[in-house]
Amino acid sequence: MKKLVLLLLVCLFVVFGVLPLYGSSQTTIVLTVGDTSALVNDNAVTLDVAPFIKDGRTFVPLRFVSEQLGGEVTYDTKPDGTVNTITVKMGGAIEPTTQTGVVILSEGPYSEYGYNSITGEVQNQLGNPVTDVTVIATFYDAAGTVVGTKSTSTDPQDPTPSEIASFEISWSEEFPFDHYVLKVTWSQP
């Protein structure tokens, strides 16, 4: 029975590379095959392991997806340390996920006079300063294939704790894309 449930979960997640998942209470999770960054309700988060495709099936981090949708995941291990049973319990209210690091507060695309942009704000939610904050946009076509990337530094580039910094990613060349995923990187002094 548990193998059937796991198989059904994997089948539900099979999409051509990009996996938008919708849970109750309007929780939105966007995962990209081969990428350890994800979006949860438009907030950038980092995964322990990237989704991947094997034998034509897409595998996603079960614990991450389940917990983001309000579930509880437990493992029953054998004496030798291998996992014997994985249990996912769903139900109850979904608690908001606490994000840490430098997170995207808002973002949105616009186009004017032949130039395209994504503008927004990030916030340093760490208790210490960060440096070299960069926002990277990866653009995908409808099949989930990367068609381009663009990046920019934030202003200010080194936000202090709780400080909000703005960003604008601009481009003038035309390349068709279906959607994009933003990732924030930074260094700690």
Q: Could you describe the largest sheet, including whether it forms a barrel?
A: 4 strands, antiparallel
Terminal residue distance = 50 Å
Low-confidence stretches: 1-25, 91-98
User: What oligomeric state do the depicted chains represent?
Assistant: single chain
Q: Tell me the name of the CATH class of the largest domain.
A: Alpha Beta
* Integer average pLDDT: 74
Specify the number of helices.
2
* Percent of residues in beta strands: over 45%
CATH topology of the largest domain: Copper Amine Oxidase, Chain A, domain 1
N-to-C SSE string, H for helix and E for strand: HEEEEEEHEEEEEEEE
Share of helical residues: under 10%
Please give the CATH architecture of the largest domain: 2-Layer Sandwich
Can you give keywords for this protein?
mainly beta, Copper Amine Oxidase, Chain A, domain 1, Immunoglobulin-like, 14 strands
Could you characterize the architecture of this molecule?
The protein is mainly β. It folds into two domains: 2-89, Copper Amine Oxidase, Chain A, domain 1, CATH 3.30.457; 102-187, Immunoglobulins (Immunoglobulin-like), CATH 2.60.40.10. The protein has two helices and 14 strands. It has helices at 2-12, 62-68, and strands at residues 18-22, 28-32, 37-40, 43-46, 52-54, 57-59, 72-77, 83-89, 102-112, 115-124, 131-140, 146-153, 164-171, 179-187. The strands form five sheets. A four-stranded antiparallel sheet has the order 1-2-3-4, with no helix packed on it. A three-stranded antiparallel sheet has the order 9-10-13, with no helix packed on it. The radius of gyration is 19 Å and the shape is globular.
